[in-house]
Every structure is written in structure tokens, then in C-alpha cells.
Amino acid sequence: MAAVDDFDEVLEPYHQALGEIINGNPYGYRNFYSHRGDVTLANPFDPPARGWDEVAKTLEGAASHYRDGELTGFETVAKYVTPELAYLVEMERFEAKVGAREDATPVTLRVTSIVRPEDGTWKLVHPHADPISTPQPARSVIQE
Question: Which site among 25, 28, 113, 118 is 20 to 30 Å from 138 CA-CA?
Fold first, then answer.
């Protein structure tokens, strides 16, 4: 049974799975996701995905943007855990070759993860990752 007390035990393997994504492999990370129909994913590359099939496809696409990655750190901004639901807000930091770049570049993503207990373990039901890690001017939200 997933319990409030064991939530922190899930974080290290979850972070290690991110290390696989930034090396082009989405499969370790997929194990942390709920496979239920209400799972969603919002990442920096695609519109939000809904449902396991769409989320799995979007994860593969996201992983394809990265290679030769190395984790450099995680900063927990907020964490709240109840028996029914938990959330985690982190700054994820890594270096990787992104897209067509031939050199590794530092990347920081602001990530909010919502998890719930399913079948005795914590499962990711919605992560939202974006590259906003510093204050942005108001005009940055204007689409032209």
C-alpha cells in the first residue's frame, strides 16, 4: 500500500528515470506513470496529452529531443503528501545535447508533479514541465 511515509522513497528512482529521458530513453520514466485514462502530461515540446496512449507517445517524442544527458540536481520548491494525493514542485537541472545541438547545454525545468496511490505504489497522474526558471516580463505571454 502506498503510504505518506513512503513517498520520499519513490523520489530517488523517479529522479533516476529522468536521467534516462535525457539520454533518449522514455521507458524507465513510463513505469512511474498511471496507465489510467485520466493521466495527462504537459511538457515543453507538445500540447498537453491526455490518456495513457497519448501520454506514452508524447513521452517518446520528448525523449527523442535529448541525448548524452547528465543529471546535475533537483531543488524541491514544495511538497505536499496526503494518503489520497501528493504534489511535488521542483527545479530539475541537467545537461544534455538538445535537438540538433552537438554540444551539451545546461537545462533547468520547473516541474510540478501530481501523484496518487495506485495498486500499492505512487503513480504519476500529471507532470507539467516548462523552462521558466527565472522571472519573465509580462510581454512574454503575448502570442503574436
Answer: 113
